[in-house]
């Protein structure tokens, strides 16, 4: 017997939530619950491990849909489809950082709903169980922190905790004040994602947090006794940046 895809609805408008539940049931999916608060979404997701979560971005209460999605991903890697009536760039950028599988604009129509879920189901696989390699990366970047996959969980690292990042082919070691974390990403990708002014490329294999520098010499830097080379092509940019802080 084919496994039925189990869906959790997180929506604080009960009329919209009831309509979603009705449409999903007609499409052959199992709605395992309807919750209206971010805190309840986290608890329900962790206890019941749904295959997909339909998550309203703008929830009432202290935790919005994006923060709820981040908290859920710290424990379970469940595909998120955001429901949103908010189209501003800042909200979209924050939501995108959590690597959702889709966005559905409200008011939604049944065709958009059906197609979006069908695409996610295809990614999940025939058995309806998520394989985490569907995620393009194990790195999520937010304005003041990043989340990295470590020992099966998404771990929060504040940008201020990062000392330097060292490339190892298609992997990078993020070295922090609390430990080292290996992520599946190129240094170029991380460089593009880290917009914070404290981070700068100093070598083809290194990005450093210039707020953590202990020594700046002619051909190298030191951060907590780690000697990091400086390439000539990056040195002028580094010195210019140091003059501004």
Provide an overview of this structure.
- This protein has 245 residues and is an alpha/beta fold.
- The chain folds into two domains: 6-134, Rossmann fold (3-Layer(aba) Sandwich); 140-242, OB fold (Dihydrolipoamide Acetyltransferase, E2P) (Beta Barrel).
- It contains seven helices and 16 strands.
- Mean pLDDT is 85; it is low at 126-137.
Q: What is the domain tally?
A: 2
CATH domain fold name of the largest domain: Rossmann fold
Tally the beta strands: 16
Spans with pLDDT under 50 lasting ≥5 residues? 126-137
Q: Which CATH top level class of the largest domain fits? A: Alpha Beta
Structural class: alpha/beta
Mean pLDDT across all amino acids: 85
Distance between the termini: 63 Å
């Amino acid at each position: 017997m084919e496994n039925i895809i189990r869906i959790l609805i997180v929506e604080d408008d009960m009329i919209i939530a009831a309509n979603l539940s009705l449409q999903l049931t007609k499409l052959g999916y199992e709605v395992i619950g309807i919750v209206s608060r971010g805190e309840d979404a986290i608890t329900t997701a962790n206890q019941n491990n749904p295959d997909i979560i339909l998550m309203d971005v703008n929830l009432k209460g202290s935790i919005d849909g994006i923060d709820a999605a981040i908290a859920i991903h710290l424990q379970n890697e469940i595909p998120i489809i955001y429901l949103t009536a908010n189209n501003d760039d800042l909200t979209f950028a924050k939501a995108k950082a959590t690597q959702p599988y889709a966005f559905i604009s409200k008011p939604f129509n049944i065709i958009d709903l059906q197609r979006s879920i069908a695409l996610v189901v295809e990614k999940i696989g025939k058995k309806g169980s998520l394989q985490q390699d569907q995620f393009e990366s194990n790195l999520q970047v937010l304005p003041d922190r990043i989340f990295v996959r470590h020992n099966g969980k998404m771990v929060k690292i504040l940008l201020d905790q990062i000392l330097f990042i060292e490339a190892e082919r298609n992997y990078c070691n993020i070295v922090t004040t609390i430990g080292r974390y290996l992520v599946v990403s190129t240094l170029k990708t991380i460089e593009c994602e880290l917009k914070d002014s404290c981070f700068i490329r100093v070598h083809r294999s290194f990005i450093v947090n210039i707020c953590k520098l202990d020594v700046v010499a002619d051909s190298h830097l030191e951060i907590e006794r780690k000697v990091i080379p400086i390439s000539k092509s990056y040195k002028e940019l580094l010195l210019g940046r140091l003059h501004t802080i």
